[in-house]
Write a structure and sequence with these properties.
The protein is an alpha/beta fold. It has one domain: Aldolase class I (TIM Barrel). It has 14 helices and twelve strands. The longest helix has 17 residues. The two termini are 37 Å apart. The protein binds iron/sulfur cluster (SF4). The site of iron/sulfur cluster has 12 residues, from loops. The site of iron/sulfur cluster (SF4) has 12 residues, from loops. Its main location: mitochondrion. Keywords: 4Fe-4S, Iron, Iron-sulfur, Metal-binding, Mitochondrion, S-adenosyl-L-methionine, Transferase.
């Protein structure tokens, strides 16, 4: 599974300082005091002074989401990677219902800057959201992803498929993305739970368009085929990066060929599906490698590709190699479109489920209408 939507950095960095970091800070302070080095102490005090105070933390004053980090720790981030915290009425009602049903969305977990536009419908009035199922703890550990990891996550909530269906029926969305953590601890890697969730959602709301952003189910054809035939409209599985960087970026159990196989099995077992994948740029890839990836995706009949900028969630995750300029995203948009993809989304803030419905309703379905007029 890809949650590279989660790569967007935290807004409230103070609320997320891990205990270990606090402990380290205390130890540093103690050391400084013990050694009685006035210069170091002065520097430390200045650092603290220049940061936010406790009042800022309580008031949650930060209005700007900083995506990623400075490459050299000093220079300012490129202007195209700064955005505002989303606000809006629609968000409040969706949030209330989420809390009531104890559900999680990637949009909120990642503090996604596109949240208001997606949940509120944006300029084309197509409201979308991304629901995360099977818990908040993954059995894998990709180097770009901030989801918690454990070999033994909590058991599945057997009522979750109904809860998700209930919430989605109430929200009146047009398009939903259902994604999950990887559950290598389960005999079927969660494929039955995924399938049941889609069945329940379609049962209550047959018109809702469903995209599933799935794990790789370790390449098991039966399981992939079961999910592909669960009633979903779009089968998404992310390659994340080019082939030579797979081992560096993703968990050792994931790989390029396996992910291409997942997309191929899904398409072959249900040819009416739209297949989709996403790539992060800025992790060290070069143009030739990206081009080769697009060639491979076309060979495997993948319909939709998206490109977004990788942003480091915390200092423990892999570094950003490069902030790719928006003009380069435009370039890849053109290259991929010319290669025949049904739809391409490419931009620094594009996430795998960014304005997903707009992709399909406005572009893919319109194209289909043109080629198959009633
Ligand atoms: S760590 Fe888990 S949730 Fe995160 S990208 Fe990897 S497989 Fe997906």
């Amino acid at each position: 599974m890809n949650l590279h939507t989660l790569s967007i950095a935290n807004v409230n960095k103070f609320a997320r300082i891990p205990f270990r970091a606090l402990h380290t800070t205390q130890s540093k302070l103690q050391k400084i005091t013990e050694q009685n080095t006035p210069k170091l102490r002065q520097e430390f005090v200045e650092k603290l002074k220049s940061g936010p105070d406790f009042g800022d933390f309580i008031a949650n004053k930060h209005s700007e989401i900083i995506v990623g980090e400075n490459l050299d720790g000093k220079s300012r981030l490129p202007s195209w990677l700064k955005t505002q915290i989303p606000k809006g009425k629609n968000m409040v009602s969706i949030k209330k219902s989420l809390r009531k049903l104890d559900l999680t969305t990637v949009c909120e977990e990642a503090r996604c800057p596109n949240l208001n536009e997606c949940w509120g419908g944006g300029e084309h009035n197509t409201a979308t959201a991304t629901i995360m199922i099977m818990g908040d703890t993954c059995t894998r550990g990709c180097r770009f992803c901030s989801v918690k990891t454990s070999k033994t996550p909590n058991p599945l909530d057997q009522n979750e498929p109904e809860k998700v269906a209930q919430a989605l029926a109430a929200w009146g969305l047009d398009y939903v993305v259902i994604t999950s953590v990887d559950r290598d601890d389960l005999p079927d890697y969660g494929a039955n739970h995924f399938t049941k969730t889609v069945n329940e959602v379609k049962l209550r709301n047959p018109k809702l368009m469903i995209e599933c952003l799935t794990p790789d189910f370790l390449g098991n054809p039966e399981l992939i085929s079961m999910v592909a035939n669960s009633g979903l409209d779009v089968f998404a599985h992310n390659l994340e990066t080019v082939e030579p960087l797979q081992r560096y970026v993703r968990d050792y159990r994931a790989n390029y060929k396996q992910s291409l196989k997942v997309l191929t099995i899904a398409k072959n077992s249900n040819p009416r599906l739209i297949t989709k994948t996403s790539l992060m740029l800025g992790v060290g890839e070069n143009d030739e490698q990206i081009h080769q990836t697009l060639v491979d995706l076309r060979k495997h009949n993948v319909d939709v590709v998206t490109f977004g900028q990788y942003a480091r969630p915390t200092k423990k995750h892999m570094k950003v190699f490069e902030y790719v300029h928006p003009s380069k995203f435009d370039y890849w948009h053109k290259v991929a479109t010319d290669m025949g993809f049904l739809y391409v989304a490419s931009g620094p803030l594009v996430r795998s489920s960014y304005k997903a419905a707009e992709f399909f309703i406005k572009n893919v379905l319109e194209k289909r209408k043109i080629s198959n007029p009633a």
